[in-house]
Amino acid sequence: MSEETSPLRYYLLNTSFHGFRYISEAGRHWTERAFWTLCCLLSWIATLLLIKSSWEDFQTNAISFVVDTNYLPWDTHFPSISVCESDNQKRIAEITDSIYGDPHDYNLDEIVKELVYFRGLSFYTLQICGPEAQIPSEDCAKDNLGHFSQLVRSNCSQIFKKCKWNEEEFDCCAFFGALDTEMGVCYAINSIQEEKMKKLKMVSNIKTGPGKLYLEINGFANVYILGEQEVPSMTTLTTDVIQVTPHIHYRRFLAVKEIDNQPEVKDVSIRQRKCRFSDESDLNVYRYYSYSACCVQCRKDAQLKICNCAHHLMPNTTPKNKCNITGLYCLSKHYNELSVLKPYWANRTGLVCDCLPSCTEMELAVVRDDKTGIPEDYAIVELALERLPTERYKRNVVRGKLDLVVSMGGGTALFLGASILSFVEVLYYFFVRPVSNSIIANEKMKENRKFRRFNVKNQARLPTIS
Q1: What is the residue-wise DSSP string for 150-213?
Q2: How far is Cα of residue 103 from the mean position of the Cα atoms in its chain?
Q3: Which DSSP string do the residues of 137-153 spell out, in sequence order?
Q4: How far apart are CA 424 and CA 355, in angstroms?
Q5: Which of 270, 184, 276 lies closest to 231 in space, CA to CA?
Q6: For residues 387 and 316, what is the distance between their CA atoms, to the nearest angstrom?
Q7: With 222 labelled, which of 237, 289, 445, 456 sits at a CA distance of 20 to 30 A?
Q8: How many Cα neighbours within 13 Å face the side chain of 59?
């Protein structure tokens, strides 16, 4: 078979991949062919190994963390503060008296308290009103259990008495916005999850000094200290919560370390960087992603899967998916499976949530806690940065897409002497060139036929010589 009709031989003689020509050239001794065959084989193996290594590094080691100490120009953001009422016996008594009359079965007060400040268990509710109750009370609410929360819980103006930022007083309810959580409505400031309220600029730098938030709170409440994208949840660490009671002045001093991200980090896939930005949310309980919001979503999905309903305070839940008394019985029965988080490898009962951390979460550490008694019938909470941070973590891209292309291209050029066009040649010599040769051959055949017809016609017109 000739070179013109053998695409493989023609390719081997003309390709820009090094070594193939010496293997296929006619007249070479078999030892030369064997030598170049071995060299080409080793080069291709080395190239494939290098490409595989570059790809694995790109997939698993694309991101690096470094500690940034250039702190002078930094603006440090104060944590998000959420205040969630934890008890209101006076209001519960007023509501139960108005609904059930006075006197009434005071176990109903405990039922209302459990429903309004639900934390996963409903001991009194199920004992008196549950499916296994021997004498169910006629006054038991069987559905629309969230209605009590709307009646009992204090509003913003009833919870807050005074608010100050860096000794400057501000209107609490102009900046603390209502935030739906799995424990009911809380009031949050400096949180991206709450968008309806005005934003107070809670930034600390070398000009302003460490920031300080001063709150006067009525009644009993839990104060959550979290990152701006995080939300209060049943599994929030106790170190991030202050349990507030009247007549106590609480002081907490914090150390903050933020995470800064190189702009190119967002171009790296979520699987590679192992974190999500707040706008990369796939949740329906909250608009923005965070680890705690993901855990709430995980718990909601597990409740719907096991009990076919979610509890009555779960955010963004339709009425038909909210539990009635029978549903609460199911949730209590599976409390450990639904409320206690565990890693996937742990050999104990719990809820496994495959949740990534937020790319912008902050590290909070309690430096000092003080607590003193005061004569006032409200609580004072002071939260302050102990000092301006001198370190922050920075997430950098060390192996981007361009680095991957350069690494693969460099390995291919080093071992094979090839470029991207060398791979295009494969398509050309085996597909494009044969097709084009066939087209050219057909056109030549057509031209030859026309030429022969033309000659025949001209010969027929020539006069006959006698």
Answers
A1: HHHS--HHHHEEEEEETTEEE-HHHH-EEEEEBTEEEEEES-TT--SSPPP--EE-TTT-S-EE
A2: 51
A3: -TT---S-TTHHHHHHS
A4: 43
A5: 184
A6: 38
A7: 289
A8: 6
- Whose structure tokens read 């350069």? 406
**Alpha helices, H only, 217-290:** 270-273
Q: Which two structure tokens, joined as six digits, stand for 49?
A: 């190994």
Q: Which helix (H) or strand (E) holds 394?
A: strand 392-397
Separation CA 199–CA 61 (nearest Å):
38
Instruction: Return the structure tokens found at 95.
Output: 């509501």
Question: For position 152, what pLDDT does the model report?
Answer: 93
DSSP state of 214: E
Structure tokens at 4: 């013109």
Distance from the Cα of residue 90 to its chain's centroid: 41
| pLDDT score, position 459 | 67
| Six token digits for residue 226 | 């979290």
For residues 95 and 148, the answer to whether their CB atoms sit within 8 Å is yes
461 token code pair: 């017109």
Q: Is the pTM of this model over 0.90?
A: no
Phi and psi at 202, nearest 5°, equal -105, 75
Tell me the backbone φ, ψ of residue 355, rounded to 5 degrees.
-115, 130
Low-confidence ranges of the chain (pLDDT < 50): 1-3, 466
Q: In what order do the strands lie in the sheet with 160-165?
A: 168-170, 160-165, 212-217, 379-385, 248-257, 363-373
- Secondary structure string (H, E, C) spanning 3-50: CCCCHHHHHHHHCCCCCHHHHHCCCCCHHHHHHHHHHHHHHHHHHHHH
